[in-house]
Records
---
Amino acid sequence: MWSIALSLSSSLMNQMLMKFQPMNVACCFISAVVLSSDSYLPICLFFLVMRARFYNTWKLNLAMKRKTVVSLVLVLSFVLVPIVNADCIELKYDDEFSNLSSGKAKGYQVAVRFSLPVQSARLVKARFEISINPSDFEVHVYDLNGNDLVPPLTVTPVSQGWYDVPLNIMVPSDFYIALEYLEDSKPYIAEDSNVVQGHSYQRATSADPWSLNIDGNYMIRAVVCYTPPIGGVLISNTIPTIVSWLIAGITTVSLSAGIALKKKRQI
């Protein structure tokens, strides 16, 4: 679908840029912005077809090569950047308002179990809201069998508020993000207790089974990129996607040049 969209847009932009009129340049920007969302793709395609129908000029000259390069650069610059991260979202089970906090004994673990609507995803960030006593703690990512999906990470928040831990691992449809205390009562992790979601767990040691936290929701979140994506392009598939787009663009330019040459010869 995106290859088709790129083909149409690059063809249109290649022709519109033959004349640097304000309206044409504005249409190029609008096309690129609209292309950054799957939900607007039908509108974009209609827009491209109408522009091509009423504003096409098939003139082949020496400047066409330069215009072709400019059009492809514009397409990749304004379409690729917003699309790359379009499928990444933040998963959470808290209501964003902390009214509790927990500080546990050394070795204790608190966690949130995340459930995905797909079989797997790329976990790119774990987030923890520290309420008081920021201090070192250990980050774990577990599957349902208790296996570490990434080697434990020791991190050091230096202030209260949200603390982000960059990650880059594939996770199954259900997984845990856990905080393990390296000191007694440091740090305190924020909770909300307005509507208990049943996704927060705790245990005294890593060898113990998880027990459900019935008092609140630990404010631990996950930023994931879905596979397959919900709109957009997978970050992990960026390189092959770029290649397919370039092939589509080059093919379109070649076809455009061939049609233009044919029309010129018929005149």
Note: The domain at 91-227 is CATH 2.60.120 (Jelly Rolls).
---
Amino acid sequence: MKNRNEKRELSKVKNILKLILLFTKKDFLTLGEIAKNLGVHGRTVFRYLDDLRELGFQVEHSGKGYYIINKSEVSKLSEIYEVLDDIRNFSNLLVLASTSPFSSVFDINPNELLSNMLNKYSKKYLEMISFGYEINIDKKLLKTLFYAIEHRRNLLVKYKSFSGEFVKEEERKISPYFILYRRRAIYVVAYCHSRQEIRTFRMDRVAECSLLNEIFEIPPDFNPSEYVKSGFEVFLGRGNKIKIKSIVSEKLAEMLRISPKHPSQKLYKDQNNYNIFEIEISKPEEFIFWAMSWGKNIKIIEPEEVVELIKKTLRETISLYENQS
């Protein structure tokens, strides 16, 4: 079953790349043209188009067919496709995290691949993995990070922390476990010795990074895949998970069916014919921000503490716009 799922995911990546290349050759593509070229059904094409939107492409539709507004991003990706040796390498780059469903398909170590690609393509590579959005990370810093992960070496970093009301630069000793790519940014999941817990650090907030002559071991009970599933996107944790239950509109329900937001998600109709969306995560704040972005399309109904938290967040947001002169 696992191999079948991995092959299906790999086929999906290949088809999305083919779709990108199709858009470089034609300004407009009909649903039928895409389905024929990729050898898939129309419903699958809709999923691929949504995947492109998730990657930041502005895919729209007119009487002539589907088209991409930010066509320059497509051109960048087509150049990337030609630069890389084959589909295996590109698939690895798409999923940066070693915990992805692709990790067991490829015999190439993702961190080693990243390091090699940095040496070869430098800034162009950084632009590539961000799909056209600038990633402001020093190349030497990333190489140091990759080395530390591979050789299990502790790092001393100067990190800009956004916790609390003010931004402050702090010195932290960390044991880097693995890399994640989220929200067009590179993160490292690491044990923070000052906080004495596993934290997620955004690499473009690291001002300095130096290797320490200290070896660390990843705890044998640490499961990267389960750890990633604990959060909604970036806010991860090993605490008790909270089951969040929401009512969603037909529009959002269909979006969630096509593009699931979380491995734990459940989507079903209740006795009142409402669309119910459930997930289990350890930290609800990030889910609340996502829910707010969907406005009236989603209403959190359980648990009570999360309902109160989103009410408080909404009240604070609304207060910013009240009594304006």
Note: The radius of gyration is 21 Å.
---
Amino acid sequence: MDDWLLSLEESARQALSVPLFRYLSQGARDGTTSAEAVRSWADFRFLPHVMRDVTEVDTRTTILGTEVASPIGIAPTTLQRAVHRDGELAMARATAAAGCLMVVSSNAGTPFADIGATGVHWWLQAYLPSDRTLAEPLLARAAAAGARAVVLTVDTPVVATKYDGPGQTVWETTDPGLLRVNFDPDYADTPGAEKATDLGPHDIVWVAETSGLPVVVKGVLRPDDARRCVQAGAAAIWVCSAPTTPAGACRRVLPPSGCPTTGAASWIVPSPPLTPSHPSGRQSATRSRSTWTEVSGPGST
């Protein structure tokens, strides 16, 4: 792994409480998929075009109609305000400064309106509850605050096991006020608020109609599932190899025009600035963008 990335993880290990660092760094169950995800980056190789004019390299692209400075964005990550008091607000400012896309967790500890006020391009990540109507206020708040899409997580009807080790868990040591501030009061105690176990393609239609926003379906691994989502009206498919893992694999956002095997793709990375050594996140976000610039030129894939 890149020494810079390793240094970020080590900085976090030293600065964060043991339960918080353990939660952010571990995968589900034995962590097999998240460990493979780190190693898998070594398998990627660029096949550059030659005899192209690279006097000026331009990494700009568009993702669902939004122009961004590079095809790299920030994935939804919970507990950001437990890592740093400014949490999602600092992440949004850094992402906006880098000209990239930010995906905000529905469990965020910062009001959507404050995130939107930074000028960042952002999407909302959301789960659906058993009683779909309970999601309506959350979707409305996101749309009102300028969210440009809803990322519907579909691979977590049941939360995967995490071996949290001895001692207190992160949920026992984290102030509840740092989470889920965009939900209605007492949402968690409302009948029907548990995650839906009966998700289907019709929910893509419901989310799109309720929010008025394009829907990106997150957590898809199989081509046949991807086709079902596209047929139901998904604006994009988010291939996620580490479900329920906050610091898991990078993921590809695939436009439906190519379905899951062809077409341009963008990368959404697990929030690299999520470390106390760079609370604004700006250095890390800029490093991510500049690294992409170094290896990517016009026409490269």
Note: The two ends are 22 Å apart (CA to CA).
